Amino acid sequence: MRTWTREEKYRILKDPQELLPLYEKISRSPWRQAYHNQAVTGLMNDPNGFVWHDNRWHLFYQWCPWGAVHGLKYWYHIVSRDLVTWKNLGVCLLPDPEDGYDNKGVYSGSAMPIGDKIYLYYTGNHRDADWTRRAYTCLARLGNDGWPEKYPLPLFGAHPDYTEHQRDPKILRVPGRDTYYMIIGAQTREKHGCALVYSSEDLQHGWTFAGQLRVPGFEAFGDMWECPSVEHIGGKDVLIFCPQHLTLPGRGGSRNHNGYIMGAMDWDRLVFQPDGQFHVLDFGFDSYAAACANNLQEAEKAILIAWMGVPDVSYPTDEEDWAGCLTLPRELTVRGRRLIQRPLPELKKLRDEQHVLTENEAGCCPLPPAAEIEVDCRPGDVETDLFTDAAGQGGLTVRYDEARREITVDRGGMRIPFNPEEGFSRARPLENGLSHLRIFVDHSSVEIFVNDGDAVFTSRVFPAAEEHFFRIRGDVFPRLWRMKNAVKEHFLI
Ligand code: FRU
């Protein structure tokens, strides 16, 4: 694996043409996606600034242009009218390498539209000459012409009572309150993850520290919380965050998680009172830094998009100098003490012609590189092997075991294994059995929605050329559609 020097990682992008050879190289990869947003070049990670404004959805992603490395980060801008087809708009927020508060990266954040502008709240990742890190919470204003205007001074610096790890402002308007809140991921001096709350009457000025969010029972849950947010969905409050550097039962050696706690948020006392345990948002391998659209005017649901990747691991495309894509947008609703996650209804527009399933002598059907498989299941065991070879060997196995009432996803059979330390399989109990699956396959990913949003498994997979068959066993009724393209390879910097 390539090692990057600090100079290479933090090299400033001066002339977009420098990226053209890289772009041409990665465009030839068999693993470029057809309907998932992916890095134009280099690496993408968190989705940022997800809002509806000026008749379209705006989304930005953390972007390092040079390759599969977490180096100098920019915000890259994409837009969509329907959250299905997307267009690249080019780089939006750039670090100011000279004396900027973000000289070593424009890190994650969120957005709020007011009038004809979108206000972008982000972390300025600053390093001194001796590489000491400081985090600043910064603001930029984006006009309809697409040009951001950065405010010359940050809204505030890092709070002195916490470590240097303070980032990812999520700006919130709480129904019934005149005050705006901002939630920031942080680490206490005792190295525990936490969230800090800032408030202001005005989006542009007067931000003051309101306090640390108390979450009884979660005082020592991971050593840093990234990308925290408090969402209000279906009359419930939901704390969504990414606790780092802890292992959880059933999650292999994975040390970075994205999950949520249902509960009640008391904005006056800054207490989030949990009503239940921490749940992972996604049972698969590759999902992190999930962000909800900020101004959806719907009381019962939220729309969520996540980075289809996790920190501190590597992917086979690293060798091709690119990494990362986003998940499909999901509709979040609340059922009891759980979040339900369904693919957005609009995604059905992507279905192209329905395939007649014809099995070869090994019982395998061809699996197009971009496909959706919907399966109605009757009681009993079900097994589907995706990305097998023509003889039905290998691939990724989705197995429902009726006796144990459990579904398992195992990618250990793929010809190109990666991240063995994360483990190869993930399981989830299904108390009420398996009735339905919707499986979204793109060139290098699979998202498996179980029982109409009850659970989702999201994973990258990197099939070898011969791994393009699938088979399914059980009392099932499967249908398969080819999927249309929804993202264009478009070199726009
Ligand atoms: C999460 C994260 C954020 C940070 C950003 C940098 O993946 O580490 O905490 O702002 O990525 O790209």
Question: What this model shows, in words?
Answer:
The protein has helices spanning 6-9, 20-27; strands spanning 42-53, 56-64, 74-80, 87-93, 106-114, 117-127, 133-142, 148-150, 162-173, 180-188, 193-200, 208-212, 225-233, 236-243, 259-266, 271-274, 279-280, 288-292, 302-307, 322-323, 330-335, 338-343, 351-355, 365-366, 371-377, 382-388, 395-401, 406-413, 425-429, 436-442, 445-450, 455-460, 469-473, 476-483. By secondary structure, it is mostly beta strands. The strands form 7 sheets. The chain has a 6-stranded antiparallel sheet with strand order 23-34-25-30-31-32, with no helix packed on it. A 6-stranded antiparallel sheet has the order 24-33-26-27-28-29, with no helix packed on it. Strands 4-3-2-1-20 form a 5-stranded mixed sheet. A hairpin with a 4-residue loop joins strand 31 and strand 32. The protein binds beta-D-fructofuranose (FRU). Residues 45-46, 62, 73, 107-108, 123, 167-168, 226-227, 288-289, 311 line the site of beta-D-fructofuranose.
Quick one: how many beta strands? 34
Mean of pLDDT: 96
What compounds are bound to the protein? beta-D-fructofuranose
Please give the CATH class of the largest domain.
Mainly Beta
Describe the sheet with the most strands: 6 strands, antiparallel
